[in-house]
Specification:
Layout (H helix, E strand, L loop, with lengths): L1 E8 L2 E8 L5 H18 L35 E7 L4 E7 L4 E10 L5 E23 L2 E10 L3 E6 L7 E2 L13 H4 L7 H13 L4
Antiparallel strand pairs: 1-2, 3-4, 4-5, 5-6, 6-7, 7-8, 8-9
């Protein structure tokens, strides 16, 4: 709740804003618990403490863990989005070193870390990856890749065949930008109605 009041401050007209957090302590703690659980659930294969000296050894068990590094064109790329499905595959969104004209989708074997495919996704201007998610749709598996910088968009690929992912024609324009849904749900900057709706949904949610 925010209240405003016009006051005289040393001969000058000024506006004083009073803000009060109406959420209870119990609600805030429950919200923090939800955020923590969501973060833990989003990490593929659980949490691992890795030895910083080689980045390949589990610090708790001493076992070797696989480590993926995209080779890139001139220099290695940046892995900035990870998702995993129930078939044993890990999907990695890669921002190439040049950060220009494309991003990449790598599919890995969850057990060995072996790269099964590396697919370039064309974009306009400076671009990077910002997140990835995969879901099962009937007999197909769909991978959503979020990009940022000059191209803020969502791309969708059919990854049913992990050796050769293809753009999913049922999303946007051949799997790329052009789908009207982002602005409908308020993801486009400046869409205040979508922002207010998300705020209302959050305020209506009860602690668990």
């Amino acid at each position: 709740m925010i209240k405003t009041r016009v006051i005289n401050w040393e001969g000058r007209r000024a506006r004083l804003e009073l803000s009060h957090d109406m959420y209870s302590t119990e609600y805030k703690l429950a919200k923090k618990d939800q955020e923590r659980d969501a973060l833990i659930r989003s990490v593929p294969e659980g949490l691992t403490r890795v030895d910083g000296r080689d980045m390949r050894t589990d610090a708790q068990t001493g076992e070797d863990v696989w480590y993926y590094q995209n080779q890139g064109y001139s220099q290695p790329g940046f892995c900035k989005g990870v998702a995993v499905d129930g078939r044993g595959y890990v999907y990695v969104g890669v921002t190439i070193w040049e950060q220009e004209g494309e991003v990449q989708l790598a599919v890995l074997d969850a057990e060995t870390g072996k790269e099964l495919s590396l697919t370039p996704i064309s974009a306009i201007g400076k671009v990077g990856t910002n997140g990835a998610a995969v879901r099962k749709d009937g007999d197909n598996y769909l991978l959503y890749l979020i990009t940022n910088y000059q191209t803020n968009a969502v791309y969708c690929s059919d990854v049913t065949g992990v050796s050769a992912p293809v753009p999913y024609s049922g999303f946007g324009v051949d799997g790329g930008p052009g789908h009207p849904r982002p602005c409908e749900i308020g993801l486009r900057r400046g869409n205040r109605s979508g922002f207010r709706r998300r705020q209302q949904l959050l305020s209506d949610r009860q602690p668990v």
